[in-house]
Recover the amino acids of this structure.
């Protein structure tokens, strides 16, 4: 046995790395040969003098983690090398790829801008509406006073004025009916009828107009109401015109003709 | 011979003086309470014609013919000489009133300041003729014709069997204009540049106009309303309303 081999074997023995057979051989030689025993002690002294720090063994987890890292790194390297051009192209292509999140962001932005705009507009139109309501009320008051004016042209202006109002309340409607039925000027009454006709969506107005027929003595008003009733398709007004035809014998033939025509047309509705 | 001439001259003089006295009896000058302010004339005649002319003076000058009582049957009307013009006229606060009641017939010729408003009512027959008066006018007749020429302001005129003819110059903005007659023709002349909203309607006759009337979108039409025009002239403005049952309507440009 050569010295080096011998020394290695002793070292292995000291580190407990030997198999059972080699171990026994080393122990047998130590007991039997003084030269080997001397050698053994020498090596043992050196070994112990080395004061080797024990390096902890790596844990199995660490090893597997390391292996996994290594593997992915290798894979990445392989991919990167193959497609550096494709990577650039891919990034460009990315710009054109449909990305719902941008759409959503844009939509939300638009909706909120729209909502803000609508709110501002509504706020403004509300104040406008309030203003015009006040204005409308003032106009209505003016109409009411003008309708009582002694000058027919002022009453006429008042009636024309009602056609510019956005909203006409019951007070004005009642005042218009007083004018329609009692105003001394025939033209004022005729124009009032036109003004009321524009409010005929209101059932009160329709009823008032039907009731007004028998109150009108002027032939022109009777004819104007006849036209109005046909425009409104007021079938029940036919009775009133029949009454007018029965009551007055002095009517001119053309008025008679007109009223008879009206009754006929109303009855066919 | 000389005596004869003297007698003739004397009788002529006497006759002349008589007519002067008579005409003084028929004429009346009415001073206004406040001549600086516009006045108003209110006339109500049972029967008779009336002519009113605007002039540059400040007084109302009234001359009258009558009154007459209507003759029985086919007889001529009989003049009532006991009554003076002043019996029918009053003035208070620039409002001049003339009222002639049933059954009297009386005709008038009246001069008024150019700036005057008229309210004229003729309850039976008689023409109304007004010239060069600016103001707010209301005229109503039955069987006579109503003629207003060279006037301005607002006009509300209605008639039954008579015609209405109005010649405006110029039209005041915002002044209403309404003319109606049952059977008469209505003839309205306006300056070509007038801005107006018009409503024209005749039941049995026709509407003629040389104005362009913008009717916008046509509304509902009934077969009973055979002629109706509603629209704007020169973009719209003053309200103009014309209605007749049996007469034609003429809306003309003033020349």
């Amino acid at each position: 046995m050569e010295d080096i081999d011998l020394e290695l074997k002793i070292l292995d023995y000291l580190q407990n790395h030997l198999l059972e057979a080699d171990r026994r051989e080393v122990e047998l030689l130590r007991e039997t040969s003084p030269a080997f025993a001397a050698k053994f002690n020498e090596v043992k002294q050196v070994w112990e003098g080395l004061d080797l720090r024990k390096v902890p063994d790596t844990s199995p987890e660490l090893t597997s983690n390391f292996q996994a890292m290594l593997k992915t790194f290798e894979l990445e390297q392989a991919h990167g090398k193959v497609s550096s051009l494709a990577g650039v192209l891919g990034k460009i292509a990315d710009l054109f790829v449909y990305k719902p999140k941008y759409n959503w962001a844009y939509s939300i932005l638009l909706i909120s801008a729209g909502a803000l705009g609508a709110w501002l507009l509504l706020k403004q139109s509300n104040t406008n509406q309030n203003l015009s309501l006040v204005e409308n009320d003032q106009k209505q008051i003016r109409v009411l006073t003008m309708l009582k004016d002694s000058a027919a042209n002022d009453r006429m202006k008042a009636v024309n004025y009602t056609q510019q109002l956005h909203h006409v309340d019951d007070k004005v409607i009642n005042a218009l009916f007083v004018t329609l039925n009692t105003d001394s000027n025939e033209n004022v009454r005729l124009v009032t009828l036109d003004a009321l006709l524009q409010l005929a969506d209101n059932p009160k107005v329709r009823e008032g107009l039907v009731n007004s027929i028998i109150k009108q003595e002027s032939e022109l008003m009777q004819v104007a109401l006849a036209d109005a009733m046909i425009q409104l398709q007021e079938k029940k007004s036919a009775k009133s015109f029949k009454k007018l035809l029965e009551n007055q014998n002095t009517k001119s033939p053309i008025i008679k003709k007109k009223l008879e025509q009206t009754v006929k047309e109303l009855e066919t509705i | 011979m000389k005596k004869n001439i003297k007698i003739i001259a004397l009788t002529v003089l006497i006759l002349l003086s008589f007519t002067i006295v008579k005409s003084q009896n028929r004429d009346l000058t009415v001073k206004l309470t406040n001549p600086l302010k516009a006045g108003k004339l209110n006339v109500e005649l049972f029967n008779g014609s009336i002519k009113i002319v605007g002039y540059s003076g400040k007084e109302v000058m009234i001359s009258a013919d009558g009154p007459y009582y209507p003759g029985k049957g086919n007889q001529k009307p009989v003049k009532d000489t006991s009554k003076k013009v002043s019996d029918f006229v009053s003035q208070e606060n620039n409002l001049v009133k003339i009222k002639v009641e049933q059954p009297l017939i009386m005709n008038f010729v009246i001069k008024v300041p150019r700036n005057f408003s008229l309210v004229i009512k003729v309850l039976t027959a008689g023409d109304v003729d007004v010239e060069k008066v600016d103001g707010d006018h209301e005229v109503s007749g039955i069987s006579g014709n109503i003629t207003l020429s060279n006037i301005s302001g607002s006009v509300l005129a209605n008639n039954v069997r008579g015609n209405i003819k109005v010649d405006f110059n110029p039209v005041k903005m915002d002044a209403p204009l309404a003319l109606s007659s049952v059977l008469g023709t209505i003839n309205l002349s306006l300056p070509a540049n007038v801005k107006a909203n018009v409503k024209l309607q005749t039941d049995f006759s026709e509407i003629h106009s040389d104005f362009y009337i913008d009717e916008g979108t046509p509304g509902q039409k009934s077969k009973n309303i055979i002629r109706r025009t509603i629209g704007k002239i020169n973009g719209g403005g003053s309200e103009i309303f014309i209605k007749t049952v049996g007469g034609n309507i003429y809306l003309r440009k003033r020349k």
User: Anything to note?
Assistant: Chain B touches chain A at residues 117, 119, 136, 138, 140, 154, 156-158, 160-161, 174-176, 178-183, 199, 201, 203-204, 220, 222-225, 239, 241, 243, 245-246 (CB under 8 Å). The CA atoms of residues 40 and 250 of chain B lie 29 Å apart. The first strand of chain B starts at residue 27 and ends at 30. Helices of chain B lie at 2-26.
